[in-house]
Amino acid sequence: MELPVKFKEKIQGLLQDEFEAYLDSYSFPEYQGIRINTLKLGKEAWDNICPFEGLEAVSWCKEGYYYQEGDRPGKHPYYHAGLYYMQEPSAMAPGAYIPIEEGDKVLDLCAAPGGKSTQVGARLGQTGLLVSNDISATRAMALMKNIENFGIRNSMITAETSERLATKFKGYFNKILIDAPCSGEGMFRKNENAVKSWETHGIEHCCTLQRIILEDAYTMLKTDGMMLYSTCTFSPEENEGMIEAFLEKHPDCQIIPLTGVGGIKQGRPEWSDSKKDTLSGALRLWPHHLKGEGHFVCLIQKLGEAFDETKRLSIKKRIKDIPILKEFIETNTHLDINTPIIELKNKIYLQTEDAPDLEGLRVIRSGMYLGEVKNKRFDPSQVLALAYPKEMFKNYIDLQIEDANVIKYLKGETLLIEAPKGFNVIGVMGHPLGWVKSQNGTLKNLYATNWRMM
Ligand SMILES: C[S@@+](CC[C@H](N)C(=O)[O-])C[C@H]1O[C@@H](n2cnc3c(N)ncnc32)[C@H](O)[C@@H]1O
C-alpha cells in the first residue's frame, strides 16, 4: 500500500513517536466483524446456534464479534434470517456510544448502507422512531434492504439533503447520528480507492459538507437532545477542529465526555486551535491501538430551546379498514388489526401512531412495507415475515439448519413439504425467512426474487 506523501508527513507530525507503530499497522490483517441482531435473539440463543468457530468479542460493542478469515457470514442462512450484520469493528463504536432510550425519535442522517441504523434500530427495540437518511437514492436502497432484513418496524427511509430534512423536522429528534462523509483516512488500510478519493477530493471539500450537515442536525435536535458525530478519518480538521468550530458557533451545546475502552483513545485537544480540554471527551480509534480500521466519535448535547414544529401524518386508516388486508392478517397472523397504516398505490405501509408527515421529501420507505393489494387479493411482503417472531404467524414451518430445504428455499426452489393449505411462514432454527404457499404437499416459493441466494 503506497500512502500519499502528504498524508504520511502530516500524520507523522501528529503522531510523532507513535508514527512507526501506526505504519506497522498496515501489515496487520483486515479485521472483520459481525453484530448480532438483538431484535431477533439474545446472546444465549446466539451461542446455542452460532455456526462460526472462535468468534472473539469486540470490547466496545457488546453485540459485536470478530470472525475469522475463511468464515463466510454473508453466505449463511442466518444472514438471510437477519440474525446479524457484517460490520468493520471500529465502525461499531458510534452506534454503541450514542445513548438510546426507549421511545426515542432517532435520525441517522448519513445512513447508507445501514451499519449504524441497524445497530440503533435494534437498540430502540421497536419503540420510538428511526428515520434513516442518505443523500444517495441508490445507496438508500441498500440501506432499506438492510433495515428490512433486520426486521426494524418503526422506521422511515429518505434520500435527502440535510438542508431539506431540516425544513421538515425542526426540534423533532431526541438523538441524531451523523456518520459524516469524510476523507476516509481510516479506510486506507483496506481500500486503495479510498486513497484515490482522498487525493481527488481533499479534506477541505469534506469539511464544507460536514459544517452544513452539523448545522442542519442542530436545527433538528430537541432541547437536551444529543447528536453523535463520527468520521472514519484521522485529520484533526474533520474531527476535533470541526467540533471546536461548531461549539464556538453554538454556545448552547456541550460535549458529553465519553470514555474509551479496549484500546480506544481520547480526543486530542492539542490538535485544535483552542486546545480546549473538553475535546478530550471525544474518542479516537486507531489501527495501531486496537483491532479495527479507525474512527472518531464525539457526543454533543444541545441545551438551548427548540420547538417541535414537525407536522404529523393524519392517520386515516387501520388494517381493519381494508377488507382483503384484514382477512389476510386475521387468517395468517396475530397482528393487531387496529394498527395504523397508509396506502400508496395499493401498497400498504405500517405506521407508528405519532408518525411524521414526509410530504415533499424524497421518500424511499414510509413505514414498514406490509404488502400489496392486487386483483382482490393481498400479497404479503418479505419484510412482514422478517419483522416478527415466529409466534406472530398462525402457520409456521421450522427447518433445521442442516436441512437441504433451507438452501433450496433461499434459492427460490419449490419445496416438497406437507403443511396446512394456504400461506405459511418458513424459517430456520426458529427464525422466519419468508413466505410459502402450501397446496397438496408442495410449497410454492414466495421468497422475494431480489433476496435470493445466488
Ligand atoms: C460514512 S458513509 C455512512 C456509513 C453508514 N453510516 C453506515 O454505518 O453504514 C457516509 C454517507 O453519507 C452520505 N452523504 C454524503 N453527503 C451527504 C449529505 N449532504 N446528506 C446526507 N448524506 C450524505 C453518503 O452517500 C454516504 O453514504
Fold and architecture overview:
The chain has 454 residues and is α+β, with helices and mostly antiparallel strands. The chain has 3 domains: 89-302, Vaccinia Virus protein VP39 (Rossmann fold, 3-Layer(aba) Sandwich); 312-383; 389-454, Archaeosine Trna-guanine Transglycosylase, Chain: A, domain 4, CATH 2.30.130.60. The chain has 13 helices and 23 strands. Strands 5, 6, 7, 8, 9, 10, 11, 12, 13 and 17 form a 10-stranded mixed β-sheet that branches. Helix 6 packs parallel to helix 7 and helix 8 runs parallel beside helix 9 (192-220). The longest helix has 29 residues, at 192-220. It is globular, with a radius of gyration of 23 Å.
Main attributes of the structure:
single chain; 454 residues; alpha+beta; Rossmann fold; 3 domains; five-stranded antiparallel β-sheet; 23 strands; binds S-adenosylmethionine; methyltransferase; RNA methyltransferase activity
Reconstruct the topology from this structure.
Blueprint: H1 5-15, H2 19-24, E1 33-36, H3 43-49, E2 56-57, E3 64-66, H4 77-80, E4 84-86, H5 93-97, E5 105-108, H6 115-124, E6 129-133, H7 137-150, E7 155-158, H8 162-168, E8 173-179, H9 192-220, E9 221-231, H10 240-249, E10 253-256, E11 265-266, E12 283-285, E13 295-302, E14 317-318, H11 323-332, E15 340-344, E16 347-350, E17 363-366, E18 368-374, E19 377-380, H12 382-386, E20 396-399, H13 404-410, E21 422-428, E22 431-439, E23 442-445
Parallel strand pairs: 5-6, 5-8, 6-7, 8-9, 20-21
Antiparallel strand pairs: 1-3, 1-4, 2-3, 7-17, 9-13, 10-13, 11-12, 12-13, 14-15, 15-16, 16-18, 18-19, 21-22, 22-23
The structure holds S-adenosylmethionine.
